[in-house]
Design brief:
Blueprint lengths: L5 E4 L3 E5 L5 E6 L2 E4 L4 E4 L3 H18 L6 E4 L4 E5 L2 E2 L2 E8 L3 H6 L6 E11 L8 E2 L1 H6 L5 H23 L3 E15 L2 E7 L7 E5 L9 H4 L5 H12 L4 H7 L9
Antiparallel strand pairs: 1-2, 2-3, 3-7, 4-5, 6-7, 8-12, 9-10, 9-12, 10-11, 12-13, 12-14
Helix pairs in contact: 1-6
Length: 256
């Protein structure tokens, strides 16, 4: 990589100053964490897969009229995105009971929820990203009422669209996490989708077998983690079969 100023490093990505004003280079790592960093590891080729999967889904979402930060992919691990002020919230949309809601409400994993549920979590690793109410969000000025109305509307539209898209390739969208940011366009502030959409922040289950095809395989030590990410890319047809085969060889990760 060329020498450039690093802005931020998170658990799954590094952000660098972009080549043009108002842009950022988003680099996808192979590092994997669970439990807010309590468990750490590496998923070979994850960064390559997430870059391509997120690119594909961001472009599809933009096509249905929802603005995103994605500009273009630069290489196998990097994409150019708009610089935004991230709203300090994780927006989780749930269709089926899995993950933390199972423990909180005593639900059985796999239970179909009565309707899509939208939850809000404060982005704060030290506090373990606590679940918060919309009253907290507006009271502490993390986002305005109008911004939250727009965010929830976008989140539910994205859920409808992605549910249908993945249903078409034999995958059930269980739940997913979104992040949004404020983007200054002329004199106006626009709410746009940011971060990424990938098996890192979505739960995907095979419709026929129920097999998990996401980071839960890493969280739960289920094995075949790399293969799960590759399967999502394969079904979306975003990487040639030959390139997916190369990713199975550690030495070949950077060569495709």
């Amino acid at each position: 990589m060329n020498r450039r100023r690093q802005i931020y490093e998170g658990k799954a990505k590094i952000l660098y100053e972009g080549p043009e004003p108002g842009t950022i280079v988003q680099y996808f790592k192979d590092d994997a964490t669970a439990g807010n960093g309590a468990k750490k590891g590496t998923i070979i080729g994850k960064g390559v897969m997430n870059n391509r999967i997120s690119e594909y889904l961001m472009m599809k979402i933009a096509n249905i009229g929802i603005p995103t930060h994605f500009l273009r992919r630069l290489n196998m691990r990097e994409q150019l995105v708009k610089a935004v002020e991230i709203i300090p919230l994780e927006i989780v949309v749930r269709n089926v009971a899995a993950g933390s809601i199972v423990k909180r409400l005593g639900l059985q994993e796999g239970t179909r929820l009565p309707r899509p549920l939208v939850e809000y979590y404060l982005k704060n690793d030290e506090l373990n990203d606590p679940l918060v109410l919309e009253d907290y969000i507006t009271a502490f000025n993390w986002a305005t009422v109008n911004e939250m109305d727009e965010i929830v509307s976008y989140a539910l539209r994205i859920n409808d669209f992605l549910t249908g898209l993945f249903l078409g390739i034999g995958i059930q969208l269980i739940d997913f996490k979104l992040e949004f940011g404020r983007f200054w366009k002329d004199e106006d502030i626009q709410i746009i989708l940011a971060d990424e959409i990938s098996p890192d922040n979505c739960r995907f289950w095979d419709i026929e077998s129920g097999e998990k095809l996401d980071k839960d395989r890493f969280r739960r030590d289920l094995g075949k983690v790399e293969e799960a990410y590759q399967e999502i890319a394969r079904r979306l047809k975003i990487l040639p079969e030959a390139n997916i085969e190369v990713l199975k060889n550690k030495e070949g990760v950077e060569s495709i």
